[in-house]
Amino acid sequence: MIYLDNAASSWPKPPAVAEKMEECIRQYAANPGRGTHALAMKASRVLFEARRKIAKLFGVKNPDNVVFTKNATEALNLGIKGLLKPGDHVVTTSLEHNSVRRPLEFLKHMDVEVTYVPADEQGRIHAEAVREAMRETTRLVVVTHGSNLTGTLVPIEAIGAVVREFGAVFMVDVCQTAGVYPIDVERMNIGLLAFTGHKGLYGPQGTGGLYIAPEIDLEPLMQGGTGGYSELIEMPQTRPDRYEAGTPNTVGVAGLLAGVTFIEETGIEAIRAHEEALTERLHRGLLEIPGVTVYGPPLGEARVPIVAFAVTGFESHEVGFILDRHYQICTRSGLHCTPLAHDTLGTTTTGLIRVSLGYFNTEHHIDTLLQAIREIVG
Fold first, then answer.
1. Based on the domain organization, do 261 and 283 belong to the same domain?
2. What is the rounded CA–CA span in Å between residue 270 and residue 20?
3. Same domain, 191 and 60
């Protein structure tokens, strides 16, 4: 089996991820923050250490400003719905995942206005186009750092500078770039940063989080128990408690901690270099196959390790099915939860086949896929 669907969930995971999750279950799966006994304190330390390492990864000075959620979708909903009020204006892009688009469309019913900045024909977003969309009422600019369809790297530092000029809040979805590309929330003027644990951070599914800049106050998405401050009838102001109602996923966070530790030990630069080399090999090889059309930035332009393509005469789901059943190669076909990006590319009716790479992929995996595509094309 060759797994090439890392943009959905990375696999395989570093061995330490499963080991640390099992260790948690067997040795200290108590409720963190809900007691002072030894096991509860050990569970709390795991959450603290994971929060600390994630904060370091993103250039966050105070780890308490990193809030754990069950995934990036929850983090995005917390940031978007917790910030915006009737009359606010939001700028976003046509590259966004439905985890951004759907909350924004929901808020339109509450008199929030939304402007979508279109990508160009190769999936690029330009900072000046964002500037042109800004208004006096713009409260939030929310963009993806890396498109989960086209592989486009969005110039978030340049966009962050534009957002700073207008005094709005800048929110970035880093699901496709965390653990692969350097991210610094202060240098990039990021006020809200949503991440997931199960992709480039090599943690398990059911983990993610949101960085909230200290000057930003969000309405909590949920209310409930926080362990401490039980005497209050409302959620406490203290972070991260204010945004973490209910029992946390300690087992998942233990695995996420192992994943982030793997990234620290391997080095982001080494991970990026490996994945970029494989991406170029794949992109170049697909361009040489008659009947294959590759979408997104051209060869030689930086992109996240994602390549989407179409095969003349085949529906995308048909190619994905053949690759899976006849070649044991896992890819993803269809609309990839980002229909506006497909509108931009003109592929809404057909969908695309997406190949997304991770650190554990090899040149052999790429060459085997390319040979399979040659055989399918015939």
1. no
2. 24
3. yes
pTM score above 0.90? yes
Q: Are 143 and 218 within one domain?
A: yes
* Catalytic position from the list 24, 175, 330, 337: 337
Nearby residues of 225 by Cβ (< 8 Å), 6 or more positions away: 34, 245, 246, 247
The CA distance from 274 to 267, in Å, is: 11
Q: Supply 103's token pair.
A: 């909350």
Co-location of 248 and 285 in the same domain: no
Distance in angstroms (rounded) separating the CA atoms of residues 108 and 144: 20
Per DSSP, which regions of 8-106 are E strands? 66-69, 89-93
Question: What whole-number distance in Å separates Cα of residue 8 and Cα of residue 209?
Answer: 17
pLDDT in tens, 256-307: 999 999 999 999 999 999 999 999 999 999 999 999 999 999 999 989 999 9
* Residues 6 or more apart in contact with residue 344 via CB below 8 angstroms: 94, 95, 118, 119, 121, 123
Assign residue 284 the CATH number of its domain.
3.90.1150.10
Region of residue 334 (phi > 0: left; psi between -120 and 50: alpha; otherwise: beta) = left
* Domain identity same for 295 and 241: no
DSSP label at residue 152: B
Angle at 76 between CA 205 and CA 344, to 5 degrees: 100
Instruction: CATH number of the domain at 109, please.
Output: 3.40.640.10
The reply to whether 330 belongs to the active site is: no
- Same domain? For 38 and 178 the reply is yes
pLDDT confidence of residue 34: 84
Same domain assignment for residues 142 and 216: yes
Number of domains comprising the chain: 2
Name the average pLDDT for the chain: 96
Range of the domain at 23: 15-266
| Amino acid of residue 136 | E
Residue type, 99: S
CA 142 to chain CA centroid, Å, is 13
Q: Are 149 and 342 in contact (CB under 8 A)?
A: yes
